[in-house]
Amino acid sequence: MLDLYSRAGIKNIELGSSHEHIKDVHSLLSQYRGMNFIVHNYFPPARDPFIMNIAAQDKIIRDRSLEVCRAAIDLCSYLGVSIYSFHPGFRVHGTLDGSFDLYGSVVPYEKAFEVLAESIESILSYAREHRVAVAIENLEHRNDAYMMTGPREFEELLDVFPELHVLLDLGHLKIASRRLGFTVDDFISCVREHVVGIHLHENDGVSDLHLEPLKSDMLKCLPQLSCPNIILECRNSSLGNIVRNLRALERYCDGCMLSDVSI
């Protein structure tokens, strides 16, 4: 994928999707010093695949999830990458299955938030040592296990951790605002000063489809934000369509640093 992007003239890449484990990812990525990377969530992929959950009550799952975060921060430090972003976790004892569906009961919010806060403190502490900024992503509230989907949650979390940044996913925000009944503007007002990255993709307001965003009504949010990293996160697109979307977004944003589809 990196070879394809390089030949297409794409230099800004978010490393984030769940490829298989790569034995020596540091050496692989060091071959692409001409590219600008940021690192997201489950990257580098764990040797034994699982769904991360930094809010898990199960200490084994939580520790495995934090190990992924530390490995990502190590990679950022090695490559000179300034930002690592991660998902907030889920209100379940262990973790969700591969479809992210909820089976069984959810953990009370206060208990899940307490564990989430402990994990974030651990991530922030490790990131400080390595001089890497970290950001938490807002999710779409697919079910009641999902955390950090609305403005009140972010207001509380950012009050506890003022140095924590936000990866604002506009596709997730579109879904969560409709499901939970808050406005997009209220959410943006809550997180605006903390946003260091934006995931940009489109959906039908119900499912997280990751469609191309050029006709999305969420584009209107971009002028409200000052953000150096705008990441095109559409799926199942041809390389030609990826390039077309990037060039259109460059014209729309006029000077923002643009990354391409998460890989």
Overview of this protein structure:
Helices cover 38% and strands 13% of the residues. The chain is an alpha/beta fold and 263 residues long. The chain has a single domain (13-259), classed as Divalent-metal-dependent TIM barrel enzymes (TIM Barrel). It has an eight-stranded parallel β-sheet with strand order 1-2-3-4-5-6-7-8. Helix 5 (151-160) links the parallel strand 4 and strand 5. Helix 3 packs parallel to helix 4. The longest helix is centred in the middle third of the chain and has 22 residues, at 109-130. The model is unreliable at 257-263 (pLDDT under 50).
Overview features:
eight-stranded parallel sheet; 8 strands; 38% helix; disordered C terminus; single chain; globular; 8 helices; 263 residues
List the helices and strands and how they pair.
Blueprint lengths: L1 H6 L4 E4 L9 H6 L5 E5 L18 H21 L3 E4 L22 H22 L2 E5 L13 H10 L4 E5 H11 L3 H8 L3 E6 L29 E3 L6 H15 L4 E2 L4
Helix pairs in contact: 3-4, 5-7
Quick rundown:
The protein has 263 residues and is of the alpha/beta class. The chain has helices at 2-7, 25-30, 59-79, 109-130, 151-160, 170-180, 184-191, 239-253; strands at residues 12-15, 36-40, 83-86, 133-137, 165-169, 195-200, 230-232, 258-259.
Question: How much of the sequence is in beta strands?
Answer: 5-15%
- The succession of helices and strands, N to C, reads HEHEHEHEHEHHEEHE
Radius of gyration (CA) equals: 17 Å
CATH architecture: Alpha-Beta Barrel
Distance between the termini: 7 Å
CATH topology: TIM Barrel
Low-confidence stretches: 257-263
> How can the largest sheet be summarized?
8 strands, parallel
Query: Number of helical segments?
Result: 8
Q: Strands of the largest sheet, in order across it?
A: 1-2-3-4-5-6-7-8
Give the rounded overall mean pLDDT: 92
How many separate domains?
A: 1
CATH superfamily descriptor: Divalent-metal-dependent TIM barrel enzymes
Q: Compute the number of strand runs.
A: 8
CATH class: Alpha Beta
**What global shape is seen?**
globular
Q: What structural category do the secondary elements indicate?
A: alpha/beta
Helix content: 25-40%
